[in-house]
Amino acid sequence: MKTAVMLLTTATLALSAGAAMADTSGKRIALSNNYAGNSWRQAMLKTFEETADKAVADGVVAAADAYTTSESQTTEQAAQIQNMILQGYDAILLNAASPTALNGAVKEACDAGVLVVSFDSIVTEPCAYRIAVDFVEMGRQEVEYLSERLPEGGKLLEIRGLAGVSTDDAISQGIHNGVEQFPQFEVAGAVHGNWAQDVAQKAVSGILPSLPEVVGVVTQGGDGYGAAQAFAAAGRETPLIVLGNRQDEMAWWAEQRDANGYETLSLSIAPGVASLAFWVAQQILDGEEVPKDLTVPFLKITQDTLDEQLASTPVGSVANVAYTLEDAKAVIAGAK
Amino acid sequence: MQTKYRILLPVISLAVLLAATFWMQPRTMSYFGVNLLFNLAVPIALATIAQMMIIMVNDIDLGMGAFVSLVACVVATFLHDTPVLGTFMLIGLILSYAAMGALIHRLELPAIVVTLGMSFVWGGLALFILPSPGGASPGWLRALMTSKPPLMPMAVVAAILISIVTHLLIMRSGIGTVLRGVGGNTRAVQRAGWSVIWLKALAYGLAGLFAVLAGMALVGLTTSADANIALRYTLLSIAGVILGGGEFIGGKVSPTGAVIGALTLTLASSFLNFMRLNPDWQIGAQGAILILVLTARLLFAKREVRT
């Protein structure tokens, strides 16, 4: 008996001292997702599944299951989180239906000793970890890129997202910050493209006749291709359109590049952020000291990486990247 | 005998579902587990009682979810920041519900249309008060909803309390009998010398009161609100009343059954979650449970007629 205890202690010591992997092999992780109705969320669930299946097969964790609510309602997701506590999960990854209305359930989870890592749509409850997206910075970087390409500046067209959604406000805020930083630019007009090609095309077609010459189009993703179509239909020269990683946008970009050497930048958030959340949770379960607030890097596609990304993105989907344990460690190290 | 049957079926369905849940997920069989299973059922039970008050007088309320959301927004903002003003606003909301009842009766409007229309008013007001999710739960409310009474978890104590109070109010008291009478046979009540418009206003006012309690309980659990927080409650509350033995033919309701119905619905979705059923199938499965219980009730009722 004594020897067994000794052995166990030694084993535990050895584990905590050295290997990071084995500590979490008995842990179970759940993904609580509120919505699965668009290509981004579908890609997110798929990436999570791939990461999770591999991690389970490798013995990194005991289980990693994804749950999606059927009606995307906060009360429903709160119940889902409480059920996960009862199912005995050690960690809950959370893409939340509301930043605040799940706080009660999240607190229940924390009090029960369950780790909560929210990502993409994060929660404000202080006991949860947050992997947030710096949308303001994303908007600013768009203008920064334009300033590198077009140092003499000019007028810009801004395509916004869905009115009243915080993401739209944040990206637009960033774009306007960028314009302040690079005053050679001026936003000549703005339309709402609702992150959809068809809506963006209609909106841009509507505003184009009233616009002077536009040198660049700043977008929020999902709207670049529609904008390009609208410019072509109006018979105007295609300006520099910053794209948002959608497959149709990249296909159009590649086509333009081959035809006339078109050059631009594409940036957005990779749905694979779910796999980043998975590895961050694994690291926390492993005993790693992790700050409560982390930031997801954007997925940037440049002229050099276009072909590679286009080839790996299915039609109708969005460019993705499956984050690895090393990526998670880099994000954690970057936030410390 | 009939009222006894009415309560028997909801009790059996809850017991069966509870047994299945305990068997599938033994962790739930504890003080902590039962509380987590049922604490979100407390606001649903209160909303179901509110809906029952309306169904009792032969109407139906399609604005319940929006109204509870509005209450939640008021509780998370005004009641938290300025308790006196918040209290007056909540009382005002209850009175406006009573006024809605009187209006529906006076102008002989279909309740289904008025309540649906009002749901947009409630929703708009909620957005006006809380344009983006936020607010905070008053400390005492949070403490109440997360309290840990001895012997039984808060959720169970609350469910028992709600059913006893509403049972006494609706099934035992004189005014409760008259209110049920309004749904059963309005003309008879009128001939007996009662003012139906006041009775309807009272029924709607009681509905407003319980809906306010539902919103408060919800905020106590979630700690904050958003304008769409309780939209599901409209259909959940109707389903809860029916599941609990109520009928769309006015006057035939059971408060205890309604509370049990709300618990059953909550448990059903947890059960489906534990089964790891694909979410696309979950709504359908919930519907199937509802239809199953109603079918069982119909079979009961038919047998009763035969014997």
Description:
Chain A is an alpha/beta fold. Chain A folds into 2 domains: 23-133 and 270-298 and 320-335, 3-Layer(aba) Sandwich (Rossmann fold), CATH 3.40.50.2300; 135-268, Response regulator (Rossmann fold). Helices cover 46% and strands 17% of the residues of chain A. Chain A is built from 12 helices and 12 strands. Chain A has helices at 2-17, 39-57, 74-86, 103-111, 135-149, 166-181, 197-207, 224-233, 247-260, 273-285, 306-312, 325-335; strands at residues 28-33, 63-68, 91-95, 115-119, 129-133, 154-160, 185-192, 216-218, 240-241, 266-268, 293-296, 299-301. In chain A, helix 10 crosses helix 12. Chain A is elongated, with a radius of gyration of 22 Å. The model of chain A is unreliable at 1-21 (pLDDT under 50). Chain B has 307 residues and is mainly alpha-helical. Chain B has one domain: Orthogonal Bundle (ABC transporter involved in vitamin B12 uptake, BtuC). In chain B, 77% of the residues lie in helices and 0% in strands. Chain B has 14 helices and no strands. Chain B has helices at 2-24, 31-38, 41-56, 64-81, 83-106, 111-129, 139-145, 154-172, 174-184, 186-191, 196-222, 233-243, 255-274, 279-306. Chain B is globular, with a radius of gyration of 19 Å. The chains are: A alpha/beta (336), B mainly alpha (307).
Largest interface: A-B, 33 and 38 residues
Number of helices of chain B: 14
What ranges of chain B have pLDDT less than 50 throughout 5 or more consecutive residues? none
How large a portion of the residues of chain A is in β-strands, by DSSP E?
Answer: 15-25%
User: How many structural domains in the coordinates of chain A?
Assistant: 2
Number of distinct beta strands of chain B: 0
Which architecture name of the largest domain in chain A does CATH use? 3-Layer(aba) Sandwich
The CATH class of chain B turns out to be Mainly Alpha
Number of strands of chain A: 12
